[in-house]
Amino acid sequence: MVLESLVTPFKAEKHPIEMFFIGMVYSSVAVLISTQIFEDMAGIIAVFLTVMASIPLMYSTMKFEEEKDLAESGEIRLLKEHAKAISFLTFLFLGIMVSFTLWYTFLPPATAENLFSLQINTIKSINGGATAMVSVSPGALFSKILFNNIRVLLFCMLFALFYGAGSIFILTWNASVIAVAIGTLIRNHIAEYANLVGVPFVAGYMHVFSLSLARYMIHGIPEIIAYFVGGLAGGIISIAIIKRDFSSERFEKILIDTADLVVISLLILVIGALIEVFITPVLFMN
Question: 202-206 long-range contacts, Cβ below 8 Å, gap at least 24?
């Protein structure tokens, strides 16, 4: 397949930022194909096609990181090696999310709403729950958000364990939902600059876009990193089982490494939830 040959884990570790543009290519091709061929189911098909394009890289990354577990000595050094994979996978996610955001923002409203109808319904459901939590104390809100994030983390780990690179489906779906939320903010605020033309309009649009993106990414990036760390842990175990490394003494080393990854992902989720409850509302009170 053409898309899967664009990059390998080794190349991605050397140039992680390039994965942002790879993610945009994957998702943009998926949107174009789904809207032209699968119009009635375009939203979910676009997600699946993006996942299909990403799976070869995800699976190769899991194998690559499992091999590091067996080759590297010293847990700190090993975690630094894993950080390289988390870095380029995060850029991949951001590329997918920004691409979906741009498509949702610039497509004609009717087309965008048809393409992202499932995501729009998901956001309405989330907003309905959020409204019920308005009067809840910060401590209760923190517990609610953290519990939900841990549940997503658990699914990422289980999908990676049973389906190898399966965690990319949950993350791509989340990318599409976040994209619609960001795109909605952009659409709601861009009317303020509708009477401007030329450079002032472009400046106003870029301000709205960056502000809307920051509103979700300040706490969203730590959460996404945590999901990738957890997914990587599940994927490493999956590859080890496939290769029957569990029957050797080296499996103990793999278990220690994956346990460390799970603990790290949980700590990052705690930080993300704290930011979402106590920092994001202060920075974006409007």
Answer: none
Report the b/e string of 97-127 with b at 16+ CB within 10 A. Answer: bbbbbbbbbebeeeebebbbbbbbebbeeee
pTM of the model: 0.85
pLDDT digits (tens, 9 = 90+) for 84-136: 888 888 999 999 999 999 998 888 888 888 888 888 888 777 665 554 555 66
Residues 269, 261: Cα–Cα separation, whole Å:
12
CB proximity list for 218: less than 8 A, separation 6 or greater: 275, 279, 280, 283
Supply the pLDDT for residue 245: 61
pLDDT at residue 206 in the model? 60
- Contacts of residue 241, defined as CB under 8 A and 6 or more positions apart, other chains included, come to none
138's tokens? 């910060």
Q: Give the start-to-end residue ranges of the domains of the chain.
A: 3-283
Residues 6+ away with beta carbon under 8 Å from 22: 6, 7, 92, 95
